Amino acid sequence: MSDPAVTHSPPAEPQLPGLEGFVSDWSSDRTAFKTASWGKAMIWIFLLSDTFIFSCFLLSYMTVRMSTEAAWPNPSEVFALEIFGVHIPLILIAIMTFVLISSSGTMAMAVNYGYRRDRKKTAILMLVTAAFGATFVGMQAFEWTKLISEGVRPWENPWGAPQFGSVFFMITGFHGTHVTIGVIFLLIIARKVWRGDFDTEKKGFFTSRKGRYEIVEITGLYWHFVDLVWVFIFALFYLW
Amino acid sequence: MAEAHLGSDTMVQPAAHAEGQQHPIRLYLIVWFWLFVLSACSYLVDLLQFQGYLRWGLILMLMLGKAGLIIAVFMHMAWERWALIYAILVPPVLVLIFVVIMAFEADYTFFTRAEFFGAGG
């Protein structure tokens, strides 16, 4: 009975359409985000700040690529693989893209089953998502190993503009770190779901608050964001 | 299922028991399918070696289509209130201004390199 803080607002009144709804919610002198809990509002604001971080990376990439006189290495050829003697351009990156999109699909379904309080399906789908994520990181490690063995360094590479290496390691490295953190986060939450923490309202070891199935959606928001960033990296770095 | 529908639409309940975001699984599968199709298309742009404005236009359109689907459906932005949608989606638009500024800057750097260092570098 002793919740340390009030985490819920009273049920929100229906919103006014469009811009009017935005203004009236923001000027209501109480909670701006009427239907989003504090947890959801905070993950969104975190993701917004992360958006700016990745925007800055992609912007610096645009700047160095536009301002160099040396030819930019052709990603289509750099990331090509020989599979059974067949030369396929960019195939590894395409597979990584499909793996990450699949993980987003299973994550979305995990969130859905979470709100239906289907403990087992939620946990299994989260574990499948984590497995896809780990596969993605594994393929990225393979890609890094291949490029490093071919002589790509942050300051030089055999094919053209030396900036290519620094941009590549910086952007994919940061994205890979995000995926890795997401996998760890997924495993922690999946374990809690499996144990039934959110059905028995067991208190968390760190916050000592009762957890709710909403944390599955919050984990999902982070995970979809990682996929979203990859959509931009894939288009702007690998395809451009 | 039936209970969940009652809970979210018709009855006034304490907020703690209102369960958020109930959508049919079918919706997610459809979006998943489209994300696959759009990704395959953007890979085809590379395989078929489209060049120039056609390539860049297709890449950007497919990218924005995928991003829109992920944000709207997977991240449930389509069902949020405008207060949250504007707060999250408007600030990144400002990045576009940054893009324009840096494009000018990069052009200038390129010009000075060409002018003073000659070829290479």
Report on this structure.
The complex is a heterodimer of chains A (240) and B (121). In chain A, 68% of the residues lie in helices and 2% in strands. With 240 residues, chain A is mainly alpha-helical. Chain A has one domain: Four Helix Bundle (Hemerythrin (Met), subunit A) (Up-down Bundle), CATH 1.20.120. Chain A has a two-stranded antiparallel sheet with strand order 1-2. In chain A, helix 4 packs antiparallel against helix 5 and helix 5 runs antiparallel to helix 6. Chain A is globular. The N and C termini of chain A lie far apart (57 Å). The N terminus of chain B is likely disordered. Chain B has two domains: 79 residues, no CATH class; 41 residues. Chain B starts with a helix and ends with a helix. Helix content of chain B is 74%, strand content 0%. Chains A and B meet through helix 1, helix 2, helix 4 and helix 8 of A and helix 2, helix 3 and helix 4 of B.
Q: How is the topology of this model organized?
A:
The complex is a heterodimer of chains A (240) and B (121).
Chain A: H1 18-26, H2 38-67, H3 75-78, E1 81-83, E2 86-88, H4 91-115, H5 119-149, H6 163-195, H7 197-200, H8 214-239
Antiparallel strand pairs in A: 1-2
Helix pairs in contact in A: 2-6, 2-8, 4-5, 4-8, 5-6, 6-8
Chain B: H1 2-9, H2 25-47, H3 52-74, H4 82-117
Helix pairs in contact in B: 2-3
Short structural description:
The complex is a heterodimer of chains A (240) and B (121). Chain A is mainly α and 240 residues long.
Please supply descriptive tags for the structure shown above.
A: Four Helix Bundle (Hemerythrin (Met), subunit A); two-stranded antiparallel sheet; 2 strands
Number of strands of chain B: 0
Radius of gyration of chain B: 23 Å
| Terminal residue distance of chain B | 64 Å
Count of helix runs of chain A: 8
The biggest sheet of chain B amounts to: none
